[in-house]
């Protein structure tokens, strides 16, 4: 019955959007997502959203596998994908390369132990309680970042934390390595391969909610200023008709996206614009080496 309903919706959307096809001539929609989780998990999480977009647009919608934040930036800048879910800093990098790239939506985060409810999150510096109880105990220790283009896992710590301790991370820690993702940083911390890790507060909450850590596992030894949450962005030359249909699919009548929102620990999807990310863009433009 569900398959039949989706078939009728797809037929209706196809007829409704013939004028869109005439102008856009696009046979499918491609999405790239920053690799905060494994690709297998992402595919499962995103299925309800892919179905909603496909029903609304009347065309197939798929996720393009991505191995790093940079690969997602490259994909949306080159036009290889139509929508990208980026971290705030990776959006800023993409927008610097193509000013037409436009943020249009962001998740509203549920209240968590590490993250307050709303549209903002923070970068955290975590250490196991038995390893360090304050920042001084981390001097000369092994630190982990996630990805060079990650906002909370690299960009903000390299500016805000470095300013607080009065030196670059490479001088404060004995060694600093990139793990590839927030989850890999937390895993390295749990396994004792690093002594401290900079991670997004929302990923720490995800580990807590899944039972992989408890409230006593880590000390939070530093918090960044609030960061507006990750945006969904359009590629620079996506046509206006498609943008309007995508906004409709993602921002209106979100009851059908409950499973997707639950997988993201989010309560809703909210509209955003460039203004929400302007402070971070200014910080990146003025930081040393920026």
The structure class reads: alpha/beta
Q: How is the quaternary structure best described? A: single chain
CATH architecture assignment name of the largest domain: 3-Layer(aba) Sandwich
Question: Which residue ranges are poorly predicted, with pLDDT under 50 across at least 5 consecutive positions?
Answer: 10-22
β-sheet strand percentage: 15-25%
Instruction: Please give the radius of gyration in angstroms.
Output: 20 Å
CATH class of the largest domain: Alpha Beta
Distance between the termini: 55 Å
* Helix share bin: 40-55%
Q: How would you describe the overall organization of this protein?
A:
InterPro entries: PhnD. Keywords: Signal. This is Phosphonate ABC transporter substrate-binding protein. Belongs to the phosphate/phosphite/phosphonate binding protein family. The radius of gyration is 20 Å and the shape is globular. The protein is built from 12 helices and 13 strands. Strand 1, helix 3 (39-57) and strand 2 form a beta-alpha-beta unit. It starts with a helix and ends with a helix. The strands form 3 sheets. A 6-stranded mixed sheet has the order 2-1-3-12-4-13, sandwiched between helices. The protein has a 5-stranded mixed sheet with strand order 8-7-9-6-10. The protein folds into 2 domains: 29-111 and 228-286, D-Maltodextrin-Binding Protein, domain 2 (3-Layer(aba) Sandwich); 123-225, Periplasmic binding protein-like II (D-Maltodextrin-Binding Protein, domain 2, 3-Layer(aba) Sandwich). With 290 residues, the protein is of the alpha/beta class. It has helices spanning 2-16, 18-24, 39-57, 69-78, 88-97, 151-165, 169-172, 182-190, 201-209, 240-251, 258-263, 278-286; strands at 29-33, 61-64, 83-85, 102-109, 120-121, 123-128, 142-145, 175-178, 196-200, 218-223, 227-228, 231-234, 266-271.
């Amino acid at each position: 019955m569900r398959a039949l309903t989706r078939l009728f919706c797809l037929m209706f959307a196809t007829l409704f959007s013939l004028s869109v096809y005439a102008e856009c001539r696009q046979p499918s929609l491609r999405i790239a997502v920053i690799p905060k989780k494994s690709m297998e998990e992402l595919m499962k999480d995103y299925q309800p959203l892919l179905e909603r977009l496909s029903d609304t647009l009347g065309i197939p919608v798929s996720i393009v596998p991505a191995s790093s934040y940079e690969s997602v930036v490259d994909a949306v800048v080159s036009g290889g994908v139509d929508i990208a879910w980026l971290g705030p800093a990776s959006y800023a990098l993409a927008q610097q390369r193509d000013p037409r790239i436009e943020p249009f939506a962001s998740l509203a985060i549920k209240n968590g132990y590490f993250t307050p409810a709303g549209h903002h999150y923070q970068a955290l510096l975590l250490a196991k309680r038995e390893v360090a109880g304050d920042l001084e105990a981390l001097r000369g220790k092994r630190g982990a970042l996630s990805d060079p283009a990650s906002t909370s896992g690299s960009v903000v710590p390299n500016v805000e934390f470095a300013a607080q301790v009065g030196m670059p991370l490479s001088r404060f820690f004995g060694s600093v390595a990139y793990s590839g993702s927030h989850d890999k940083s937390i895993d390295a911390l749990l396994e004792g391969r690093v002594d401290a890790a900079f991670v997004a507060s929302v990923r720490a909450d995800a580990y807590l909610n899944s039972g992989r850590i408890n409230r006593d596992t880590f000390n939070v030894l530093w918090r960044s200023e609030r960061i507006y949450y990750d945006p969904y962005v359009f590629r620079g030359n996506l046509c206006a008709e498609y943008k309007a249909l995508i906004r409709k699919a993602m921002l209106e009548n979100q009851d059908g996206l409950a499973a997707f929102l639950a997988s993201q620990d989010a309560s809703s999807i909210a509209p955003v614009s460039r203004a929400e990310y302007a402070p971070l863009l200014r910080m990146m433009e003025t930081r040393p080496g920026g």
